[in-house]
Amino acid sequence: MTDASTRVSDHHHADVSGGWLRPAVFGAMDGLVTNIALIAGVGGGGAEPRNIVLTGFAGLVAGAISMGLGEYTSVQSQNEQVAAEVAKERRELARNPAGEARELADAWAERGLPRDLAEQVADALRHNPEEALRVHVQEELGVDVDERPSPWTAAFSSFMCFSAGALVPLVTYLLGFSSLWLALVVGGLGLFVAGALVARFTKRKWWVSGGRQLLLGAAATAATYLVGRLIGVGVS
Q: Of 96, 106, 100, nearest to 134 (Cα)?
């Protein structure tokens, strides 16, 4: 096998249409930030370690369920909207195939394809209705009718990753330590590691991605800690 053929066979893209990466990343980050900030606020208000753990687990369960339901509803609604638009395009192709072919040829010609060639290809698609539908939907809506994200995959990914992220700042308490600051340090480390892992998919520098997540989480934690301190002092 030649070097050229090897390069061609090695050239591939990651699957970006499965619907799991975005909810997984969002769920993990949200779980980390939410529970780190939550225990910082409660701990800053002077709560005992037992109450901090109780609050953290309540936030984990409530947040994971909310994230899972939210992702399912969001992705399902998007799929239903796409399905409605695909059905509309199917009706337009059946009612006016010549006009739709001209519309497709015009779009390709505007992108630099020779007019004659654009018209030939668009006209050829008229003899294959399903392929014509796929191409029109891709051109006009920017989606692939055969590759829509799964709402169940999105919901499960979000639920599990939120739970995992929210558990990180509680680990030290579960191991018997009672220091709020130790829990926050472990949570911050979790944020940095999660951001660095995301860099494997985005091809960004791992320390930049990790540092960004740590900085955002630290800002949220500082805000809730100050709120907790103010409310705790005021109540006492």
A: 100
